[in-house]
Amino acid sequence: MQVSRCRFWWCSRCKAVFEKEDLQNKIQQFQNRSDLMLVGTRTCGHCQAIYQLRDIFTGRHDVPRMYWGQLQQPVELPMAARSYFGSRQSKSSPFSVLMGWLLCLVALAGGAAILAYVLVLPLLDGLALGVR
Questions:
Q1: What pLDDT is stored for residue 39 in this prediction?
Q2: In this structure, what are the phi and psi dihedrals at residue 50, rounded to the nearest 5 degrees?
Q3: CA of 64: how far to CAs of 9, 47, 94, 120, in Å?
Q4: What residue ranges of the chain have pLDDT lower than 70?
């Protein structure tokens, strides 16, 4: 059984939103075993509609993506599911690393040009004035 990583589910009757309890542990349990069963129900705290845990955790009642911007972030648990704010390692492509270095060099060259303009030109102007 595939457990949905979305942290929130909603009542299809009254649209009340709830956070899935113990989602992180459920994901870890089902990663290691596919024969585990989710048995039980949850009741909507607003309209008293009853939902099967299996339907809630498999994503049948997940809040639709179009509403995710209104929910507490992150809406989805990361793939590693270590914590809500699991380690986010960015994997840079060689092209992006090269572009980063080029931008640094351009910035350094621009800084050197500005420094030369501010420091050297007044000295040259002073020398030119003294010679006349």
A1: 86
A2: -110, 135
A3: 9, 20, 36, 62
A4: 1, 32-36, 79-93, 95-97, 115-132
Spatial separation of the C-alpha atoms in residues 114 and 110, rounded to whole Å: 6
State residue 86's pLDDT score: 42
Dump the DSSP string for 60-73. Answer: TTBPPGGGGGGSPS
Single pTM value for the model: 0.54
In the DSSP assignment, the letter for residue 29 is H
Triad 36, 74, 90: Cα angle to 5°: 95
Q: Show the tokens assigned to 44.
A: 């909507």
**Which among 86, 83, 78, 71 has a CA at the least distance from the CA of 25?**
83
User: Could you tell me the two tokens for 98?
Assistant: 């090269």
Residue with tokens 């457990």: 3
